[in-house]
């Protein structure tokens, strides 16, 4: 036994077991997050309950079972419920999502099993997804075109009319963000141009007349587009649907606010699977609604990826140049030791401190100076002197800089001195040796540092809350207006979206599944970025493998 312990085999098995347990724990956590998040998009069964109130009145509730729990009877009696004749120790109560926010006080309600007279899953119950006020549950009675009821199959008529409305909404969105947005952008540029002329003392009558003429033409074009937009909006509001809700009353809903309709109780497994994929696609490509508790997260995905890529573009050359200087040029003296200690200590600074530094230095000092030098006509409204994606990328670049420096230095230290000496002996300069021999051989280590930097930066939230991220960004950092890349704009981020939905949402129960879904999506985005970087690293490793021999 002592010989076995001295051989080191137990420690190998212990290490392997610890790694296996860690891997199982991580995979289990990912599976839990994925399951809780992805099941949110599955079309759930819609129930119709017949209930009795404490006063003996009967009423109907229609909705989805969101959660259930066992509650001690003593706790319920302590809350004021009589529960005469109940002999069980616990009772089950159901958390039901009822929707129909215009007509019920709460989107969710608890139903106690002693109040339930019956529970059915009748065919024909529809879930109507809307752009506001959440889902609407009920029985579709008829579809109206104006005031005229349409004949034929109600479901086919409703589906075709919703597709028509969605097409009109897409045209309106394209018009608003395309031509109308371009005119608004040009009008703002004219306003700033006139302001600049006034500040410079060059506001001559001819220059102002030219600006007014161009502004008049733009406003004339705007009125034409505005009339087209109003016509499209009237067409989208033309049709409506009559739905009988849980109160037994008929409610008329404009199709202009409807996004989709489904009949989960009538769906088979294949139909539910197709609907599930459709909902996931809408979640990934759509925009948030209802204070981020409904809709999609595409702006947050775009903002996260864009910010991480911009951060990688900034941190890679800075980290590589710093590592090359420290390893190849700097002498081994006290100053170099202090610099190395400072770089290592930077990795231990709390991320929120980087956020405060970014806000004070990048936003207020650097951004404010840029505004005073290059954008005085826009003041007091800041251009670069407010949080934005550029300052977020720079802040995270400083945060992840130690990782890239240390990783690059490790790669440089593994390159034999004979390689450098051989290159110099053949007549190459030190700069040529670095550029053609050393950096290519160290490129896998550089990519390793970049992978670690991406993983760290993509999950950071605290510093971004100070230097650029917002709850809802009206415009993406990239659009069709010159200069097309607007790094001064605020942006949305998946990590902040999770925080906002989970802790700042006005409807916690509705937001909880979205927290899991967005968390799973954030992990997927990080894994995707890392896999891309790993692929590039492996390609570079194979490409420059011959230099090792």
From TrEMBL:
<dbReference type="Pfam" id="PF00528">
    <property type="entry name" value="BPD_transp_1"/>
</dbReference>
<comment type="similarity">
    <text>Belongs to the binding-protein-dependent transport system permease family. CysTW subfamily.</text>
</comment>
<feature type="transmembrane region" description="Helical">
    <location>
        <begin position="389"/>
        <end position="412"/>
    </location>
</feature>
<feature type="transmembrane region" description="Helical">
    <location>
        <begin position="338"/>
        <end position="366"/>
    </location>
</feature>
<keyword id="KW-1133">Transmembrane helix</keyword>
<feature type="transmembrane region" description="Helical">
    <location>
        <begin position="12"/>
        <end position="35"/>
    </location>
</feature>
<keyword id="KW-0813">Transport</keyword>
<dbReference type="GO" id="GO:0005886">
    <property type="term" value="C:plasma membrane"/>
</dbReference>
<feature type="transmembrane region" description="Helical">
    <location>
        <begin position="297"/>
        <end position="326"/>
    </location>
</feature>
<keyword id="KW-1003">Cell membrane</keyword>
<dbReference type="GO" id="GO:0005315">
    <property type="term" value="F:phosphate transmembrane transporter activity"/>
</dbReference>
<keyword id="KW-0812">Transmembrane</keyword>
<dbReference type="GO" id="GO:0035435">
    <property type="term" value="P:phosphate ion transmembrane transport"/>
</dbReference>
<keyword id="KW-0472">Membrane</keyword>
<feature type="transmembrane region" description="Helical">
    <location>
        <begin position="433"/>
        <end position="455"/>
    </location>
</feature>
<dbReference type="InterPro" id="IPR005672">
    <property type="entry name" value="Phosphate_PstA"/>
</dbReference>
<protein>
    <recommendedName>
        <fullName>Phosphate transport system permease protein PstA</fullName>
    </recommendedName>
</protein>
<feature type="transmembrane region" description="Helical">
    <location>
        <begin position="514"/>
        <end position="536"/>
    </location>
</feature>
<dbReference type="InterPro" id="IPR000515">
    <property type="entry name" value="MetI-like"/>
</dbReference>
<dbReference type="InterPro" id="IPR035906">
    <property type="entry name" value="MetI-like_sf"/>
</dbReference>
